[in-house]
Amino acid sequence: MCDPINFTKIRGNTVEGQRSFFEQLVCHLAKLDGGGGEFRRIEGAGGDGGVEVLRILPPCDFTGKRAARGGSTEGIWGKWDTQVEKWRKLAAARGMTVEFDPWTAFEIEAALLRADAQHLIPFFFDRLVFTREWMQRHLDRTIHDLHARYSPGEHVDTESLRPFDVIYRRENVCRDLRAVFDLARSSDPRAAAALVEDAGVPEADIIAAEDSLKDFLALGEAVDWSTAREWPICRWVTSWYSLTRRLGHIDRAIRDRIQTEERTDYDAPRRRVSETTKAYELIGPEVFGGRWAHLIRIDGSRATLFVGRAGAGKSHVLARGAETAWNAGAPVVHILGQHILDDDPRTSILKRLEIAHWSFHDALSALNLAAEAAGTRAMLVIDALNEGHGTDVWKSHLASFIREVNQHDSIVLVVSCREEYLDYVVPTKVIAEPRSYPGDDGQPPKDCAPLGKLVRVSRRPRHWEPATTERNGCTVPCWQRSGTSPGAWSNEERTMFPFPTL
Questions:
Q1: Of 91, 90, 73, residue with least CA distance to 82
Q2: What are phi and psi of 201, to 5 degrees?
Q3: pLDDT, tens digit, 9 for 90 and up, residues 120-160
Q4: What is the pTM for the complete model shown?
Q5: Apex CA 176: angle with CA 173 and CA 180, to 5°?
Q6: How many Å apart are CA 153 and CA 141, to the nearest integer?
Q7: CB 464 within 8 A of CB 315
Q8: 304-352, pLDDT tens digit by residue?
Q9: Smallest Cα–Cα separation from 55: which of 40, 33, 34?
Q10: How far apart, in whole angstroms, are the C-alpha atoms of residue 223 and residue 288?
Q11: How far, rounded to the nearest angstrom, does the alpha carbon of residue 99 sit from its chain's CA centroid?
Q12: Strand 411-418 relative to strand 53-56: parallel, antiparallel, unpaired?
């Protein structure tokens, strides 16, 4: 690139809009700078004190200062040096040592021309980007191509949509997670031991349980983190597991002690002990080891695979999930497997999106930046990997495809495959095998946050089963659809009995 970058041409229809985009550009360059420590974007118009981004470093000695500039310090540089001196005095008054590195147009342009940053130029300085209008047009085309496989007017919310609740950290997920931490706050293992004289619980066990409780509660605030910060799933799981097992050990010891006492009523004191430790209540919801346990791994993998037989409703669920996310403001690109016709699926995707002149990396970068601008996650949805030339190409491309998408931390990949074709399309090594509980060594369970792999979600076909409904004040037999279960009727069996449909 020979021509210098004209920063006055940065996107934004107003001065304020351009200023916002410039701040966003600098934050991306700061993230790519790789200066060590934890990168953290500061959001909040008017409430961030002018700070757009932080890089939190571990404690260190500031020995190797940046060499001073020679020559005159008059003009703009003089003003800069004067301001830096004021900042340093303010920092010193707070016991802080801070270094300030100026990024002029020269430094920013040089940073943009690095190989790992050039993808930012088309987004920030080129009008050909992923606008809402552009994405809406392509989503409408995909929905139209689905034909009978997606009927929005006939949708009924089911548990099959829960993966999307995790992707966007919707309230039903966060509510269940918060409930576990709220329950833990009411646990008091020491008070439980005090309910029984000579409870027989070693002080060391009580202290260990209290320490585990403290560690677990310290992780509670992460539930309400924005999607820009990855949930600490592995720490949640290991901490919850350690806490519940320690509380359970204390609970059982006290209950056994009650059992040895010469009394006729055992249930009441044992119930009070359990109500105080909360051991069984904390295990009961099984948020980290039950219905959400498998799905919350999607937050760490940022990739999920819906699997089911023909007619199970995979296309409907993916379309509904994409449509709901889109209506909530999330950028969404939805591709059908039938349009994957090239030797490299990336080529087919770019052609389908009418951006064949882009690289796939640039397309992902634009989608990622659109998500960050919207303050949410984007989804790349590919329905039916087994269709088109999928059985010929995905087996050799899927692993690198997932890894490439994962390099953009605001994009979640959502794909589906018919179960009968799974072995021919999806390599076994890219399907996560998450386990709910840590091993005996206390380490996180396998595939706890399986980045680079797909978290599998099984979509079962729905069948008709007999039920009853109220019609004109009378209870009458009818058919209702349900998940596969013993005694469920097939569509063919249903036609034998002319009941109304619920």
A1: 73
A2: -100, 120
A3: 777 677 545 678 888 999 999 999 998 777 766 655 556 78
A4: 0.72
A5: 140
A6: 18
A7: no
A8: 999 998 888 899 999 999 999 999 999 999 999 999 999 999 999 999 9
A9: 40
A10: 13
A11: 34
A12: unpaired
Domain boundaries, the chain: 7-59+74-125, 132-157+299-458, 164-283, 462-494
What is the average pLDDT across 43-69? 48
Angle at 487 between CA 485 and CA 491, to 5 degrees: 85
Question: Nearest-CA neighbor of 72 among 61, 59, 81, 83?
Answer: 81
Joined together, the tokens standing for residue 120 give: 């930012």
Burial of 87 (0-12, 13-18, 19+ CB in 10 A): exposed
3-state secondary structure 354-368: CCCCCCHHHHHHHHH
**More confidently predicted of 391 and 311:** 391
DSSP sequence for 236-278: HHHHHHHHHHHHHHHHHHHHHHHHHSS-S--HHHHHHHHHHH-
- CA pair distance 416, 147, nearest whole angstrom: 17
| Secondary structure element (H or E) that encloses residue 336, with its range | strand 332-336
Quote the CA–CA distance of 418 and 387 in Å, as a whole number: 9
The C-alpha angle with vertex 330 and arms to 326 and 336, in degrees rounded to 5, equals: 55
Rounded Cα distance, 360 and 338, in Å: 19
Q: What is 168-215 written as a DSSP string?
A: TT-HHHHHHHHHHHHHHHT--HHHHHHTSTT----HHHHHHHHHHHHH
Distance of alpha carbon 329 from alpha carbon 318, whole angstroms: 17
Question: With 0-12 CB in 10 A as exposed, 13-18 as middle and 19+ as buried, what is 193?
Answer: buried
Query: What is the rounded distance in angstroms from the CA atom of residue 34 to the CA atom of residue 56?
Result: 12
**Domain 132-157+299-458 falls in which CATH fold?**
Rossmann fold (3.40.50)
Secondary element (H or E) of residue 38: strand 38-41
**The one-letter amino acid at 491:** N
Structure-block tokens of residue 265: 């009523």
Q: Sign (positive/negative) of CA torsion 27, 32, 36, 40?
A: positive
Write the DSSP string, 276-328. Answer: HH-HHHHHSS-TTTSTTTTTTHHHHH-EEEEEE-TTSSHHHHHHHHHHHHHHT
The tokens describing 371, both together, are: 């998500």
d(CA 274, CA 284) in angstroms, rounded, equals 12
d(CA 100, CA 144): 54
